[in-house]
Write a structure and sequence with these properties.
This protein has helices spanning 4-9, 23-33, 36-47, 54-78, 94-104, 109-128, 135-152, 156-177. It has eight helices and no strands. The chain has one domain (20-177). Helix 2 (23-33) packs antiparallel against helix 7. The radius of gyration is 19 Å and the shape is globular. It is mainly α and 178 residues long.
């Protein structure tokens, strides 16, 4: 219950809805509430820095397992060996493997990404399940907010322009090779 007041004061997060604040606003609020060590843990989690905190280590292990499952599914679809793309991790979560395979079976890239982020959302919830008002709850909130922020930045028109740019570049490359 170390951060009960702070955790309780945060606005609710709903998957696939607009974020109630930016990640930077959250970090600013966290900087006023967390101890320096806990703030460093939050920064390490979000920025990929070194940490020996159990939550961070477990999150990274599950994220690696998820990415490995994605790599195996993509390798199978391309009929190539997955082993060079796999990374070591601790632990094994059968539900995570199943969720990744289900997500990779979705018909569109958008639906796959949405399901993979839903899986990440559930992992964050699971890691903070018994300590929602401690550092674990704050860290899970940050991860979930990052997911919402990512989706809020997606824009169909910008994506279409980006795709058109890539296609034009690929065509130009093919023409240059002739």
């Amino acid at each position: 219950m170390k951060y009960a007041y702070f955790a309780a004061s945060l606005p609710a997060l709903v998957f696939n809805s607009p974020p109630p604040m930016s990640l930077e606003q959250f970090r600013s609020a966290a900087a006023r509430q967390l101890t320096p060590r806990d703030l460093a843990t939050l920064d390490a989690l979000l920025d990929g820095g070194a940490s020996d905190e159990a939550f961070v280590l477990e999150w990274r292990a599950r994220e690696t397992q998820l990415r490995n499952a994605i790599a195996r599914a993509r390798a199978a679809a391309a009929n190539v060996e997955a082993r060079p793309y796999l990374r070591e991790h601790t632990g094994w979560d059968v539900a995570l493997e199943r969720a990744a395979m289900d997500a990779m079976g979705r018909p569109t890239p958008l639906e796959r990404e949405l399901e993979l982020d839903r899986c990440r959302w559930h992992v964050a919830d699971d890691l903070a399940r018994f300590r929602p008002f401690d550092l674990e709850g704050v860290l899970a909130y940050a991860l979930k907010l990052r997911i919402l922020e990512r989706w809020s930045r997606m824009d169909a028109d910008a994506g279409r322009r980006r795709l058109e740019h890539w296609v034009e570049a690929a065509i130009a490359g093919v023409k240059a090779d002739r």
